[in-house]
């Protein structure tokens, strides 16, 4: 509890079974003292920007990781990123920590759902051990051949020209492999085939340690080669083409031999298995080879980075492998008449059903006994966290943050760790209310294994399931950073300073405006939508209204909005908004804007002021000050990103970066500008007695008041304040923003453009009566219910100004406040893609088939049932 024990560094006792934090001052935390129970589900909640992520990730997780890294040798630590010690007096009772964050899954362009969950690793092993090799040319199962048959084939090749007989020693393994050359020399061999080049054993090349290499020894006799190669030999003919000889794998029709099946054959990350045309990406694009790169590994990594940043439409499906990513030999291996590419294209739920049908006997049964359960367990965990609809071959970079987090959560369920502190960032994001129960059961199972869970969350069901709730506040930013309540749900509800307690006691009444807008007479209609799992559906949305698309995760909501509606309207506007059979009502729209979940900035040079565009107007304003005009200063003089006006000591950063071996990188305030980014001459220019350095240190709330007379600056700043972000600083680095803050900043950036055009049109009296269409995907991410109420005001204000807003949402408060709802489902994947219900929230609530209806009825009637009753209702639905 706050203030329970005074924080003296290292000198305070720890409560039994608790993580004790004393004197935490990281970011906006106000020297707080808090006890976090171990072996419990602990929820940290509070307004967006109140310090939740700071406490959970920057203190609990980061310190747990830092202590683990400190236990490593100084030699090992130089290869890992050093974590900064948090600003806290003492932390005791802290177990090893694992963060499962709300971020897009990391990994290269080749990462898929199957590889991230490790399902594909076990599939490769299964196909290599019990799969059947078929000839890619003849589609005939391969058979064993005798040694004499292999010798006869070598003799045929020798008739065409000089050949070299090779015995494979190293096949696609990383390392220097100098011991292989030494062995070959002792055995009397003189030549080796190293990565496709003949090399003398005395001149064995220096190999890249972390790149896969293949090495064959040149021998004189086919029998000896088969013996050294354990049943496999290779022939290098006069045209430098390699031919495989095998006593195990040979096509009875054409005689082609194949090497023994190996899990690497099915890896699209290895030259041993990837498609030669697309190199395992499944798609092709124009590759730019950097001439400065001389390492093959560096070239491959550079291609990986190029693929990561491809724009939509730049890449085309590979014509050779048709997106399977593998070479013809790998694609020809089958297990129960299925190739691995076909299996990897299934959804997690479909693959789980297929795995359950697999039956083996004899030697295969013994081999599969350890592999199949590993696959089934991972697929089952994916279903438990609501991801059974995901296709295993889907690229990891296309997943939402919530999907990525739940994938990592499913992987942790299979790790069987004990005594670990798991720190999660809003795991309910992207989940339909029905799936919340499954997720909570998953978290409970993780806790039951003997682990501690700290969850940053605003979801009411999660709070009801928690053992302890820590509520931060009372406000956000500089007005937050305190522990306003700590205890059970009932104790939080009784806390007088808790915004969360007030929301739990007095839930929002819907509709918040008192009444709903009628459907109106103008609609935009999509006909025959069939992207992904959509089943040729017809959907329409009223213009100048707030509409919500809802449904269970994977039902087809994003496919409808981003895969059909957005491209159709964009194309229609580009060609003059002419009517088509697939789209009607586009002629009533002036423009379309989408606010997605991509990050807004990754460097300290990106700030709310620069991202929103108001900083350009501020710089123009300062350039008009008489002193600036007299000195010849232009707007560029007041940029901290260019030479001239910025402090050159810190290059406009305001801080100096200090690299230290074996310790985390440190930052200190610049001694010349004292953290204000500009040189002395620039700071002499004042507007209303404030320099531009003073302005960058203002909060958005202070700046909105300071620039009240400057409409172009005041309007977007006030809009941000209206969404609850008034505590942010104009010059605050974008990477320090929480997920909820960054999302709202991007939302306001898009809304400002539309509002500006609308007001300009009104002033000129030339409004053409057309509406701007805004598409938003889960804008409530990271928002406290009090912040959601402010967001709804902004969306309703946009609609009142004549615009059309369509939102994908699971948040029941937003759904209940909408003018019109389209419910997609009824289930996910192949069992979804249909319009289950549409109409007002009240009409949706009366639906007998909608998975959203039972939860919406509860919100609209302001009923708060016990968790057990709610879970029963969910399972019944």
Question: Your description of this structure?
Answer:
This protein has 877 residues and is of the alpha/beta class. The chain has 31 helices and 31 strands. A six-stranded mixed β-sheet has the order 5-17-18-3-19-20, with helices on both faces. β21 and β22 (537-542) form a beta hairpin. The chain is globular, with a radius of gyration of 31 Å. The model is unreliable at 1-12, 760-767 and 863-877 (pLDDT under 50).
Characteristic terms for this protein:
single chain, 877 residues, 6-stranded antiparallel beta sheet, 35% helix, globular, alpha/beta, disordered N terminus, disordered C terminus, 6-stranded mixed beta sheet
Runs in which pLDDT lies below 50 for 5 or more consecutive residues are 1-12, 760-767, 863-877
Helix share bin: 25-40%
The biggest sheet amounts to: 6 strands, mixed
Query: Which shape, going by the Cα principal axes?
Result: globular
Portion of residues in beta strands equals: 15-25%
- Please give the alpha-carbon distance between the first and last residues: 40 Å
Q: Summarize model confidence as the mean pLDDT.
A: 85
How many helical stretches?
31
Give the helices and strands, then pairings.
Layout: E1 18-24, E2 32-37, E3 41-46, H1 52-70, H2 74-77, E4 88-92, E5 97-100, H3 113-116, H4 119-130, E6 132-133, H5 147-159, E7 164-174, H6 178-186, E8 191-194, E9 197-200, E10 212-219, H7 222-228, E11 232-236, E12 242-246, E13 283-284, H8 296-308, E14 316-317, H9 328-331, E15 333-335, E16 338-339, H10 340-344, H11 348-357, H12 362-384, H13 401-413, E17 421-425, H14 433-448, E18 452-456, H15 460-465, E19 468-473, E20 482-487, H16 489-494, H17 499-505, E21 523-529, E22 537-542, E23 546-550, H18 557-574, E24 583-584, E25 589-595, H19 608-612, H20 614-623, H21 626-631, E26 655-658, E27 666-669, H22 680-683, H23 692-696, H24 700-706, H25 711-722, H26 739-764, E28 771-777, H27 785-800, E29 804-808, H28 812-817, E30 820-825, E31 834-839, H29 841-845, H30 853-860, H31 867-876
Parallel strand pairs: 3-18, 3-19, 5-17, 17-18, 23-29, 23-30, 25-28, 28-29
Antiparallel strand pairs: 1-2, 1-4, 6-15, 7-10, 7-11, 8-9, 8-10, 11-12, 13-14, 15-16, 19-20, 21-22, 21-24, 26-27, 30-31
């Amino acid at each position: 509890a706050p203030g329970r024990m005074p924080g003296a560094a290292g000198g305070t006792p720890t409560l039994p079974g608790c993580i004790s934090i004393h004197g935490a001052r990281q970011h906006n935390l106000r020297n707080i003292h808090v006890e976090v129970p171990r072996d419990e589900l602990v929820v940290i909640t509070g307004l967006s920007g109140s310090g939740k992520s700071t406490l959970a990730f920057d203190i609990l997780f980061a310190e747990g990781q830092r202590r683990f890294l400190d236990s490593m040798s100084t030699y090992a630590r130089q290869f890992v990123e050093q974590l900064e010690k948090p600003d806290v007096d003492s932390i005791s009772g802290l177990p090893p920590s694992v963060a499962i964050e709300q971020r897009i899954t990391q990994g290269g362009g080749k990462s898929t759902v199957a590889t991230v969950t490790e399902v594909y690793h076990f599939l490769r092993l299964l196909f290599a051990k019990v799969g059947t090799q078929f000839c890619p040319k003849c589609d005939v199962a391969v058979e064993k051949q005798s040694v004499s048959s292999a010798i006869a084939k070598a003799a045929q090749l020798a008739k065409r020209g000089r050949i070299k007989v090779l015995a494979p020693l190293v096949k696609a393994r990383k390392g220097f492999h100098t011991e292989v050359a030494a062995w070959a020399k002792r055995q009397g061999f003189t030549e080796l085939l190293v990565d496709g080049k003949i090399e003398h054993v005395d001149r064995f090349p220096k190999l890249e340690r972390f790149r896969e290499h293949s090495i064959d020894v040149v021998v004189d006799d086919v029998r000896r080669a088969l013996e050294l190669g354990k049943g496999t030999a290779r022939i290098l003919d006069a045209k430098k083409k390699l031919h495989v000889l095998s006593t195990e794998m040979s096509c009875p029709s054409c005689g082609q031999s194949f090497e023994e099946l190996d899990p690497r054959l099915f890896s699209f990350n290895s030259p041993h298995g990837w498609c030669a045309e697309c190199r395992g990406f499944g798609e092709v694009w124009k590759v730019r080879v950097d001439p400065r790169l001389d390492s093959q590994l560096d070239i491959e990594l550079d291609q990986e980075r190029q693929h990561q940043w491809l724009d939509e439409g730049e890449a085309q499906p590979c014509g050779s492998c048709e997106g399977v990513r593998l070479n013809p030999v790998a694609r020809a291996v089958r297990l129960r008449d299925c190739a691995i590419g076909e299996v990897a294209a299934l959804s997690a739920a479909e693959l789980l059903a297929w795995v359950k049908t697999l039956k083996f006997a004899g030697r295969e049964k013994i081999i599969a006994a350890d592999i199949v359960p590993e696959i089934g367990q991972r697929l089952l965990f994916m279903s438990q966290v609501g991801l059974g609809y995901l296709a295993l071959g889907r690229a990891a970079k296309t997943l939402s943050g919530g999907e990525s987090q739940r994938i990592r959560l499913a992987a942790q369920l299979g790790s069987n760790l004990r005594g670990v502190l798991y720190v999660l960032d809003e795991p309910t994001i992207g989940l339909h209310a029905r799936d919340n129960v499954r997720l909570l059961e998953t978290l409970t199972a993780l806790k039951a294994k003997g682990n501690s869970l700290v969850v940053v969350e605003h979801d009411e069901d999660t709070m009801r399931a928690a053992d302890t709730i820590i509520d931060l506040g009372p406000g956000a930013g500089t007005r937050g950073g305190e522990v306003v309540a700590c205890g059970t749900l009932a104790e939080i509800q009784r806390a007088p300073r808790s915004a969360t307690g007030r929301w739990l006691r007095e839930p929002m009444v819907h509709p918040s405006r008192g009444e709903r807008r009628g459907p109106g007479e103008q609609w935009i209609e999509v006909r025959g939508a069939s992207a992904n799992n959509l089943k040729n559906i017809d959907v329409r949305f009223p213009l100048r209204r707030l509409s919500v698309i809802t449904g269970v995760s994977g039902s087809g909501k994003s496919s409808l909005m981003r895969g059909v509606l957005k491209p159709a309207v964009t194309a229609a506007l580009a060609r003059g908004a002419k009517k088509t059979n697939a789209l009607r009502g586009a002629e009533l729209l002036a423009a379309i804007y989408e606010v997605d979940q991509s990050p807004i900035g990754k460097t300290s040079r990106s700030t709310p002021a620069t991202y929103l565009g108001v900083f350009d107007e501020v710089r123009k304003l300062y350039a008009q000050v008489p002193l600036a005009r007299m000195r010849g200063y232009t707007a560029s003089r007041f940029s901290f990103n260019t030479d001239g006006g910025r402090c050159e000591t810190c290059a406009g950063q305001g801080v100096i970066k200090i690299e230290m071996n074996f310790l985390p990188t440190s930052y200190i305030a610049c001694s010349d500008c004292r953290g204000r980014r500009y040189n002395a001459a620039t700071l002499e220019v004042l507007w209303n007695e404030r320099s531009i350095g003073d302005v960058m240190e203002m909060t958005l709330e202070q700046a909105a008041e300071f620039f009240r007379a400057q409409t172009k600056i005041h309007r977007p700043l006030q809009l941000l304040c209206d969404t609850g972000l008034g505590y942010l600083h104009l010059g605050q680095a974008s990477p320090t923003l929480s997920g909820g803050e960054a999302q709202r900043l991007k939302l306001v950036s898009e809304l400002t453009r539309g509002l500006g055009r609308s007001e300009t049109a009104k002033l000129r009296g030339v409004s053409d009566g057309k509406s701007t269409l805004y598409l938003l995907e889960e804008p409530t991410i990271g928002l406290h219910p009090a912040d959601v109420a402010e967001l709804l005001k902004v969306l309703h204000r946009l609609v009142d100004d004549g615009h059309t807003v369509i939102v994908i949402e699971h948040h029941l408060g937003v759904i209940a406040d909408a003018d019109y709802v389209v419910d997609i489902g009824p289930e996910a994947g192949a069992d979804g893609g249909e319009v289950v219900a549409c109409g007002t929230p009240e009409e949706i609530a009366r639906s007998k088939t909608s998975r959203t209806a039972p939860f919406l009825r509860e919100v609209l009637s302001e009923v708060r049932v016990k968790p057990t009753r709610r879970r029963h209702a969910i399972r019944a639905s």
